[in-house]
Amino acid sequence: MLVLGIDTSNYTTSVSLVSEDKVILDLRKALFVKIGEKGLRQSEALFQHVINLPELFENFKGKKMDAVCVSIKPRPVEGSYMPVFRAGESFAKVISLTNSIPLFLTTHQEGHIEAAVRSIDFNYTEFIALHLSGGTSEVLHVQFKDDYYITKIGGTKDISIGQFLDRVGVALGYNFPSGKKLDELALNSTNKNLRIPSKVDGYFFNFSGQETMALRYINEGKASDEIAYAVMLCAAKTLEKLINNLIKYYKLPIILIGGVSSSKFIREYLKNKFDGMVYFSKEEFATDNAVGVAYIGLKKLLKGDYNGSLRD
After folding, report:
1. Contacts of 14 (CB under 8 A, 6+ apart)
2. In what residue span(s) does the Gcp-like domain sit (predicted)?
3. How many domains does the chain divide into?
């Protein structure tokens, strides 16, 4: 069985082909953001997906697929919607109809969870997932019974953790997205005295005030590596406080998903604090990808679960 996965998130075009025992293709193309810009409008992102998808599908020549699965919205809740996902959905429908194969629908968030748990054989049926990315910072109570049942129990009260990192990075003069650059600067910094206080209230947290403080440090002429260290430490301490609060009540395993969870600084910091209690996907499956989406489709295909899908 070969299943195609498609995900067209806000900043990455992703396609994948999986079988029951391996990932056959995992192709991604980052969307282009002009230097100095802090992101993309939905219309521009949608246009870039439409251009990127045919290029990525050149690698699928001669591949016979048994089904296709696509993420059609950010989260599995009513009212969740972003235009960028229409690009992937449209391509998936055409592929399904022209090849007479089933089309399965899922969400970007579920794809992230599936990719993360599969990458490390995380076999829990109930757990907490921290979805940390440029557009999302949510605390999720997850139960798995054939499908994912996800309840949001916390998250940011203002901007996401990824926005915090990217906005500071762009202000420092780096290209968007800037998280990897800040991560590198922080890991290699010799100036570790600067601080940005973290703010956590139960399962909720803030980053807009922290962004303001970081921008003030930039205006004061503080060194880039010193600011990067303060920013990454603030992010890590925010997660530390959050995880301590979660452990007290839920006593469930915790897995970090999303692009921010690929940060080496954050991983090292939290592993030292919560070894054996907090899990991370493999780094390559933390960032946006279509592997999890494809595997969700494969599970539905093997179960014969065609509810809500297109069939020949």
Report:
1. 5, 6, 7, 8, 27, 28, 29, 288, 289, 290, 293
2. 60-294
3. 2
pTM for the full predicted model: 0.93
Q: Which amino acid is at 210?
A: Q
- Residue 18 CA to residue 65 CA, distance in Å, equals 10
One domain for residues 294 and 268: no
Cα–Cα dist 71/5, whole Å: 8
Name every residue whose Cβ is closer than 8 Å to that of residue 272 and which is 6 or more positions away in sequence.
Answer: none
Using alpha carbons only, what angle is made at residue 258 by residues 241 and 32, rounded to the nearest 5 degrees? 130
Instruction: Print the domain residue range for 207.
Output: 124-280
CA distance 227 to 5: 39
Say whether both 165 and 229 belong to one domain: yes
Dist. CA 220–CA 209, nearest whole Å: 17
How many C-beta atoms surround the C-beta of residue 196 within 10 A?
Answer: 26
**297, 104 contact by CB (below 8 A):** yes
Rounded Cα–Cα distance for residues 305 and 104 (Å)? 9
Distance of alpha carbon 229 from alpha carbon 119, whole angstroms: 29
219 CB-near residues (< 8 Å, 6+ apart): none
- Show Cβ contacts of residue 282 under 8 Å, excluding neighbours closer than 6 positions: 119, 120
Q: What is the pLDDT of residues 171-181, one digit of tens each?
A: 999 999 999 99
* Residue 41 tokens, joined: 């409008």
Tokens of 230: 């303060």
Phi, psi of 128 (to 5 degrees): -105, 130
What CATH code is carried by the domain that includes residue 197?
3.30.420.40
Beta bridge mates, 142: 127, 150
Average pLDDT for consecutive 10-residue bins of the chain (312 residues)?
A: 96 97 96 91 96 95 93 94 97 96 97 96 95 94 94 97 96 94 96 96 98 98 97 98 97 95 97 94 94 97 74 41
